[in-house]
Write a structure and sequence with these properties.
The chain has helices at about 40-60, 85-95, 95-115, 130-140, 155-165, 175-180, 225-235, 245-260, 295-300, 310-320, 330-350, 370-385, 390-410, 420-440, 450-470, 470-485, and strands spanning about 5-10, 15, 25-30, 60-65, 145-150, 150-155, 195-200, 215-220, 235-245, 265-275, 275-280, 280, 325-330, 485-490, 495-500. It is of the alpha/beta class and about 500 residues long. It folds into 3 domains: about 15-275, HUPs (Rossmann fold); about 330-440, Anticodon-binding domain of a subclass of class I aminoacyl-tRNA synthetases (Four Helix Bundle (Hemerythrin (Met), subunit A), Up-down Bundle), CATH 1.20.120.640; about 450-500, no CATH class. The strands form 5 sheets. It has a 4-stranded parallel β-sheet, with helices on both faces. Strands 5-6-7-8 form a 4-stranded antiparallel β-sheet, with helices on one face. A hairpin with a 4-residue loop joins strand 1 and strand 2 (about 15). Helix 1 packs across helix 10 (about 310-320), helix 4 crosses helix 8 (about 245-260) and helix 7 (about 225-235) crosses helix 8 (about 245-260). The chain is elongated. The model is unreliable at about 75-80 (pLDDT under 50). It binds one RNA strand of 74 nucleotides through helix 1, helix 6, helix 8, strand 12 and helix 11. Keywords: Aminoacyl-tRNA synthetase, ATP-binding, Coiled coil, Cytoplasm, Ligase, Metal-binding, Nucleotide-binding, Protein biosynthesis, Zinc. Monomer. Its cofactor is Zn(2+). This is Cysteine--tRNA ligase.
RNA sequence: GGUACCGUGGCCGAGUGGCUAGGCAGAGGUCUGCAAAACCUCCUACAGCAGUUCGAAUCUGCUCGGUACCUCCA
């Protein structure tokens, strides 16, 4: 079997993945800022890293997956009036800051559950780690790479760059940054434009504030991730993930902070997902094209022609490689919806097939060798594709090639449908592994109540009787009226009747 | 302005030198009381120009077009 290769944003190359501690992986992913509702764009990293998390576990690693909750807020515009994003909106909404934090944290967790994302091993909050952040800042000052001005502390990027390669991750040149960074007001506290805040003095109206050696204030944006990743994963850990837009300045600054404190590069593999765009533009507040997840699920947004289910969105995201941009459109989502439905119907049928009761090959079974080999090949390639930088798009392409094979077995009502029992068993087990365990897809109508099921059994049996005596009027009446109620009946080839809730 | 990246058939999207990606839509067919579904077949593209090569969507150069980051951002 091939070995796992991941694209490392730091080296800009695919590298063989070797964990620091054999059998274990430490993974840190930048989590949400809980000052508002999550939108479609936020779904991408969480789905992407959920699949990576699942796949690493499948490979046998014991993974510690840390994803933070940013509940302390940062400044809206660094250098200008430092305003805590969270406290600012809290005033508008007339909420206690922590009440709002709780509300959006709950909403975020709900959304993650909808997407069938596994919870991380540890989900630390920024406000819960003020002590660690202050400790780290003190160390950076002691090392001579930060300075205090009027109760605020800044990281000295220029000095750091003299002995370290600040800008390597994001492809930036410090000299250029020094000259081209935009002119912002109130930069006078900083020695250089490139410096970033580790701690900001809180103005009097600021609600969220903590005592520190430099007076009352709040932590800078980047320090929380450095503090929490170090605490839970160590001075050096395997994977750090997040959206590409976090490369600069967030992750670049994280490297600088952690390197000064821990004397080692903090991260071995940087993994960044690309953006979701709408009409070719990145989804973001400044573009006014944000679709919140609640709107996406309800269809209540001018851009949306209809509601899209969480699994449709998850599937939509996984059809594209995580490092490509993914363009949202109603057409694309509806295509994903239909494709997913076809996939899941075939898969759920296969899951119930009593493969283990079938006789082994050679017992009068006709095996189509060509088909058998093709299937075995398609199945075998799945690991290769995942090992090649988590290529879920290719995995899904192969799975879709297996769908007609499954449906043929179903239609012909043949035990093996030309496949050897060995291949059939492999097909069943690998489809479960990939569809459910690794890609994390699940049927959305599976959770129908037992009572509905028994009602449907009655209706279906009546309809079968009507059909047997060619009473098409009764037969059609049952089907049509159920269709109006949103339940679709399908007459299968073998005389069975299946149903799905629309 | 600086730095990256991208431009694939009606739509979405894999794919880094030669071999059908895949999904959705569309056309034809099989099956079926009808319908739906399913299955089979077809539609075979790579922004433009020039170059490297036996051979390029894939490498090089230029042109055009687009996006992202440089400020909070997934």
């Amino acid at each position: 079997m091939s070995t796992l290769k991941v694209y490392n944003s730091y080296s800009r190359e695919k590298e063989e993945f070797v964990s620091l501690v054999p059998g274990h992986v430490g993974m840190y992913v930048c989590g949400p800022t809980v000052s508002g509702e999550s939108h479609l764009g936020h779904a991408r990293p969480y789905v992407t890293f959920d699949v990576i998390y699942r796949y690493l576990m499948h490979l046998g690693y014991k993974v510690r997956y840390v994803r933070n909750i940013t509940d302390a807020g940062h400044f809206e515009e660094e250098g200008r009036e430092a305003e805590d994003k969270i406290s600012k909106k809290a005033v508008i909404e007339k909420l206690e800051p922590m009440e709002m934090v709780q509300k959006y944290t709950n909403l975020f967790h709900w959304a993650m559950q909808q997407f069938n994302c596994l919870p991380p091993s540890i989900e630390p909050t920024a406000t819960g780690h003020i002590v660690e952040q202050i400790g780290m800042i003190e160390e950076i000052i002691k090392a001579g790479f930060a300075y205090e001005v009027k109760g605020s502390v800044y990281f000295d990027v220029k000095k750091y760059a003299e002995s370290h390669d600040y800008g390597k991750l994001s492809g930036r040149i410090v000299e250029d940054l020094l000259t081209t960074t935009r002119e912002l007001e109130g930069q006078d506290e900083k020695q250089n434009k490139t410096d970033f805040a580790l701690w900001k003095a809180a103005p009097p109206q600021h609600i969220m504030r903590w005592k520190s050696p430099w007076g009352e204030g709040f932590p800078g944006w980047h320090i929380e991730c450095s503090a929490m990743s170090t605490k839970y994963l160590g001075k050096q850990f395997d994977i750090h993930g997040g959206g590409m837009d976090l490369l600069f300045p967030h992750h670049e600054s994280e490297i600088a902070q952690s390197t000064i404190c821990n004397h080692v590069a903090p991260v071995r593999y940087w993994i960044h997902n690309n953006m979701i765009t709408i009409n070719g533009r990145k989804m973001g507040k400044s573009y006014n094209n944000v679709i919140k997840l609640t709107e996406l699920f309800s269809g209540d947004h001018p851009i949306l022609e209809k509601a899209y289910s969480p699994m449709t969105v998850r599937f939509f995201i996984l059809q594209t490689h995580y490092r490509s941009t993914l363009d949202f459109s109603n057409e694309a989502l509806q295509a994903a919806e239909k494709g997913l439905k076809r996939l899941m119907e075939a898969y759920e049928w296969l899951k119930e097939l009593p493969v283990s009761q079938l006789p082994v090959s050679g017992d009068g079974q006709q095996t189509d060798n060509e088909l058998d080999e093709r299937c075995a090949k398609l199945i075998g390639e799945l690991d290769e594709f995942m090992n090649d930088d988590f290529n879920t798009a290719k995995v899904l392409a192969n799975i879709f090639e297996l769908v007609p094979v499954i449906n043929t077995i179903k239609d012909k009502n043949v035990s093996g449908g030309g496949l050897s029992v060995e291949t059939l068993k492999l097909l069943q087990s690998q489809m479960k592994l990939y569809v459910e365990d690794i890609l994390g897809l699940k049927g959305e109508t599976a959770a129908e109540g037992d009572k509905l099921k028994s009602v449907m059994d009655v209706l279906i049996s009546i309809r079968k009787e009507a059909r047997a005596r060619k009473d098409w009027a009764t037969s059609d009446k049952i089907r049509n009226q159920l269709a109006e109620a949103g339940i679709l009946l399908k007459d299968e080839k073998d005389g069975n009747i299946s149903w799905t809730v629309k």
